[in-house]
Amino acid sequence: MIYIPAGKDKTRKRSIETIPDPGLFHISLSTHRGAAAVPVVSIGQRVKKHQLIAQAGGAVSAQVHSPASGWVTDIGLYPQPDGSKRETVVIQNDFKETKEEVIPTYPGAFTSEEVIQAIADAGIVGAGGAQFPSHIKYRTGTNRIRTFIINGAECEPYLTADYSLMRQYHAQLLQAVALICNVIQPEQVVLAIEKNNKELVPIFEPYLQSLPVPLSILQLQGGYPQGSELQLIRSATGMELQRGIIPATAGVIVSNVGTLYAIYKALYEHTPAIERIITVSGNRTEVCGNYKVKIGTPISHILQTLGISVPHHKVQLILGGPMMGWTVDDHSVSVSKGTAGILLLEKRELHPYNCIRCGYCVDACPMRLMPFELAEAYENRNKSALKELKLTQCIECGLCEYVCPSDVPLLESFRLGKILTNLR
């Protein structure tokens, strides 16, 4: 773990506000891990808010719903934060808020399979960034779940969306936790938060005995990347798992608080995954806060709504956190189910030098990899070496690049290396 200046004071006490809906939504069908969703609407078709617009396209995939009523103006390839272009449904908002009708249900009467199916039908994915379809995670089969970890460890600098969610919607979060406990039957529940957020403890303490199983609060010491799934499992249970191992097989399930809030919205308010909470912040903007925003909202609309200008020669705009997020120059890219923030940071001119093999990246790597050797293997397009050096174990936390005195673009090499070797 490495201490990185947090920069969270600008937004951590801000109440959650709502960004007004844009006139056009750009809803990507393949931001989650796994197969892209398949459109079930056509250009020119009128759609209702909450209507299914794309069906899960495989075993590891997620449904996609319309965040507003209106009509489909295009289905085609549009820019993504990583620079690629992927299939996207464009919906023109009619601002009438005509909703898809649903039959009211009471989640407490659901069987475990019905809860899991409702999560799948709502298109809920991991809100922490990886966007793995949540219904798959909760199908534990014969695995005995000993520990259910609620991930409130928002370790990326500047981001406070999860903190604000826990502070304002703790009761709703715990309703979702109780529901999931009935499904996966864990022996214990651990709420993991940063020690700097200890003021959350008295907010959750009244609920410690209200769940079907015991709930404890784990206060994590400062350090990055403690919110990463594998590092969190180690802190909560002492187990060290390799990346690629399904935690449920070791008796653990981890869910981000944003994911659980989406489950509450789906099961209790009959709202599919069409919105999320993001942080807008950074050291190059005085306009900041935590905001509810619809999935598919272009970044340009958010910036314009908040009155934020972005002089490209001075400001670096990042979608996500400063360590694992994507630098974006095209502001037409939109918010996805895994977008945690929009950050405006001072543009730092990088001057990459040759690797001096100082070993700082090796010391910093939480997965005990050899980052400089991986970078060299990618530079040589050596696929076999990338596999032998366990590129799949890289969690893309960015620590190696953060400590590199030569400004070597290590994280970019690893992301491109996974694409080269088809290891994502």
TrEMBL record:
Summary of subunit composition and partner proteins: The complex is composed of six subunits: RnfA, RnfB, RnfC, RnfD, RnfE and RnfG.
Full protein name: Ion-translocating oxidoreductase complex subunit C
Cofactor descriptive note: Binds 2 [4Fe-4S] clusters per subunit.
Signal sequence, renumbered to the chain: none
GO cellular component: plasma membrane
Swiss-Prot/TrEMBL keywords: 4Fe-4S, Cell membrane, Electron transport, Iron, Iron-sulfur, Membrane, Metal-binding, Repeat, Translocase, Transport
Gene Ontology terms describing biological process: electron transport chain
Family: Belongs to the 4Fe4S bacterial-type ferredoxin family. RnfC subfamily.
E.C. designation(s): 7.-.-.-
Membrane disposition: Peripheral membrane protein
